[in-house]
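Possible regression after last week's pipeline update?

I re-ran a chain I had predicted before the update to compare outputs. Posting the input and the new output here so someone can diff against the archived version. Not blocking, just want to make sure nothing changed silently.
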Amino acid sequence: MEGLVLLNALTTRLLFVLHSLVGVWRVTVVTKEPRYWLLALLNLLLFLETALTLKFKRGRGYKWFSPAIFLYLISIVPSLWLLETHHETQNCISQSEGMSQNTSSKQDFNQTLISSEQTHGRGDLIEMARVFVNNLSTTCEKSWTLGLHQTFLLMLIIGRWLLPIGGVITRDQLSELLLMFVGTAADILEFTSETLGEKNVRNNFTLVCAILFTWTWSMLQFPLDLAVQQVACPASVTARGFRSLFFCQYGADLWNIGISVFIQDGPFLVLRLILMTYFKVINQMLVFFAVKNFLVVVLHLYRFVVLAMDVRASLRSQPEVPRGGYSPPAEPAVSGVSPEAWESGSKEGVAIPLRASPVTSDDSFPTP
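New output (post-update):
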């Protein structure tokens, strides 16, 4: 079992590194700048995290946070920024030229495959690999960038699935987290492809940077495991008041609401409204997803109010407990003296003992 944990930890991080290197390679191909290979040095942080995790955690994850996914974001996001902001990514070759190139590339690939089957030589396999790489290189840069976006989101989901479970998260909570990631990834991919695909948006560099910043901000939810982890509330939390009980009882729901309102649906809604109102970018899909983001935000706020009212009602239904968790002691009763005698004795100046003591045969009350 321990060997499987180590294998999953190493395999996942290796996939992260390979995918980030593909992104760096595409940046150098598009920009014709070999200096961008320096972006590959960002993977050194992931190597350091891998070594520390294997040494101190035996390959298992951490509580509430995944450093591996966070460092993977750091290594791949700069490459996607450079690809999206480069001018060659905005335009593709014509359809006829692309079809002719694809046809010729397929013919070359098929001829190489046939020749390799006939000779079975190692050189032919290398030649086939070279032709295959050339076919990938002739693919439209816009398609390459979209493919990197798609595989990036798939790597986040598959990587989070393969990473060993750590902390207090259970497999049931992990499955719930992965289902949330699938829906989140689909919305994020639609956001980038829908907004960056507009020509009016592409011609505005500031607007492209704003969209990419919002997209990067939404990625910060993937390293977090807070939205599914339930924490058992101790009995003493009820005595602390509404706020303590609210955050303890519905902590996971509050994190889910906060992530949706402040990290994903809220920023997406604001940016889509700016596109439609200020920049006059209006299409059917943009309006639909803007309405969808608005409904999600409103429903989350409604759920927040419902949860708050539920906690308030539960506090009102419980008996009131004084602060400190104990009730004040009752007044000590004086043995053998009624309240009426106490009151009359105090008026007449009769001395009455303040404490009750055991009565024996030799004890007597003092005389005035």
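Follow-up from reviewer: compared with the archived run. Residues 93-104, 330-336, 354-368 have pLDDT under 50 and may be disordered. Marking as no regression found.
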